[in-house]
Design a protein that fits this description.
By secondary structure, this protein is α+β, with helices and mostly antiparallel strands. Helix content is 24%, strand content 27%. It is built from nine helices and twelve strands. The strands form two sheets. Strands 6-5-4-2-8-1-9-10-11-12 form a ten-stranded antiparallel β-sheet. A two-stranded antiparallel ribbon has the order 3-7. Strand 5 and strand 6 form a beta hairpin. Helix 1 packs antiparallel against helix 7. The protein is elongated, with a radius of gyration of 20 Å. The N and C termini lie far apart (42 Å).
């Protein structure tokens, strides 16, 4: 039903003609119903707010985690975030993610070793201190706490502009504000909130960094090559061939954590996920 409503709006899309001409000249980009429909991405936007404290079990970035009593802290890894899916579920309009449980993200200083763990039972969580002394260089991660909240959002992932923040913004500026707001209201939002390709945290959607699509993170064969500007590349088909899925981007300091894991959350109890950090 939701996709049908969105499809109806996409068919009556409106544009700013001058900007459309500019996009066609610079990027050979055509905006029509077919391209908008093919490149429409429904996501769950993640919002951060620095706080002094959060309740036990709440979604947050930084500080210390709330863990089950029998949880084994990953050896010499730092706590990055915990995400409570009960809080996420209100923004998960297509029910892609679990409705309950918590996803924990741990990694060492370089993210060469990481742990992505899903815990289903959250009835007996305990705020847990580090089992080792964190390095002073990571003081902001271990001592600053950000509350995470969630809302539905969308963007258009035209491959011609994905790798550039500037051109990505130009694409959305070429679409009429009234048209974008109409789609946003279908998702229960008051107005469209532009999500910069490299600057916002989110669940779902396509990765914007070509270097993410390597065989370790997504499970492709060694002969697989991804070109983000290849208009013949079918992202969804490629993901179906992979054993992992890009699911989460979480901005942190001057970069971002990019997380891939299986869509079978039962497997996540056995740490079936990978974290990469891209930034300075």
């Amino acid at each position: 039903m939701l996709r049908e409503q969105i499809d109806t709006i996409l068919r009556s899309f409106q544009v700013n003609e001058d900007k459309v001409v500019q996009l066609k000249e610079e990027y050979q980009l055509e905006i029509d119903y077919e391209s908008l429909s093919r490149n429409f991405e429904l996501i769950i936007q993640i919002n951060k707010e620095k706080v002094t404290e959060t309740r036990v079990g709440a979604s947050r970035l930084g500080g210390v985690p709330d863990l089950p009593k029998d949880f084994n802290w990953p050896k010499r890894q730092y706590f990055y975030a915990q995400i409570n899916f009960q809080e996420v579920s209100l923004a998960d309009l297509e029910e892609t993610l679990p409705k309950t449980g918590i996803l924990y993200l741990f990694a060492d200083e370089t993210c060469e070793n990481s742990s992505v763990l899903y815990v289903e039972d959250t009835s007996q969580l305990v705020r847990t201190a580090y089992p080792f002394t964190p390095k002073k260089a990571l003081h902001s991660l271990t001592n600053e706490v950000y509350q995470l909240t969630f809302n539905p959002n969308f963007y258009f992932a035209f491959p011609e502009v994905l790798s550039s923040y500037h051109s990505f913004r130009e694409l959305h500026e070429a679409l009429a504000v009234s048209f974008l707001d109409k789609v946003a209201k279908t998702l229960g939002q008051e107005a469209f909130d532009f999500i910069g390709s490299h600057s916002k945290s989110r669940f779902l959607g396509r990765p914007f960094e070509e270097e993410l699509l390597n065989d370790e993170m997504f499970g492709f064969g060694e002969d697989f090559e991804f070109d983000i500007e290849d208009e013949d590349f079918d992202f969804e088909e490629a993901m179906n061939e992979s054993h992992s899925y890009f699911m989460l981007q979480l901005e942190h300091e001057d970069g971002g954590l990019y997380v891939s894991f299986s869509d079978d959350f039962k497997e996540m109890q056995n740490n079936k996920g990978i974290i990469q950090y891209i930034g300075t």
